[in-house]
Amino acid sequence: MTAAFGLKALIFDVDGTLAETEEVHRAAFNAAFAAARLDWNWDRGLYRDLLKVTGGKERMSHYADAYRGGETLAAERVASLHRDKTGHYTRMVAEGGLSLRPGIERIIGEAREAGLPVAIATTTSAENVEALLAATLGADSPGWFAAIGAGDVVPAKKPAPDIYHWVLERLGIAPGDALAFEDSPNGVAASLGAGIPTIVTPGLYTEPSDFAGALKVVPDLGMVGLADLRHWHAP
Ligand code: XBP
Ligand code: MG
Fold first, then answer.
1. Which of 65, 84, 109, 148 has the most C-beta neighbours closer than 10 Å?
2. What is the predicted pLDDT for the residue at 5?
3. What does pTM read for this prediction?
4. Residue of 33, 42, 59 to test ligand 1 pocket, by largest number of atoms within 8 Å of CB
């Protein structure tokens, strides 16, 4: 079966959109800080502020600078802390405990059945995406995605549109032929910046925002099917 004319791909953000992962990210950062004997501990309120900076390495550098008296962390130090954090995160995810947000698994299944490509556009690292997909959808599931744009494949992370441009190029489609799924103002700025109609599902750490320009804002995708998505994309 081939995809109907119009909608040619679904592009999903990961953190906050596929699953509520940020509490696991936060625990993994804190575990890496403790292992490195840093007296850093990010509580929920602080993490909410820190999430304004996307990317774990960028977030740690920002914290050192803005919250620890202008401290500058050497790039190797940041990279090593981040490697350790990624190890903690992927282990925690593999141990289970995270589930996909409502509707995600069903929509991905419907898209696959209809021959509609699915893809990922995220600031988080590729290992983290693979760990989450494997833990929630099965070991083969990373292979279901026509493109996985993650982490440092582009130098400028969200809110820059670069990761979406990267994914669109690999899919070989125009921005208006896709639908993006995002949970945060930074993510929506990136997807809309790339010209992709965007469905927003605000989550645990979503800051209040009116998401001007979004195609739809819905609490989650629990009641949404592929037919709705096609209709919203081309009413
Ligand atoms: C998610 C993020 C990520 C994770 C950390 O933003 O900001 O940085 O918190 O992942 P989005 P890494 O959902 O908009 O992609 O530590 O692997 O960078
Ligand atoms: Mg997100």
1. 148
2. 55
3. 0.95
4. 59
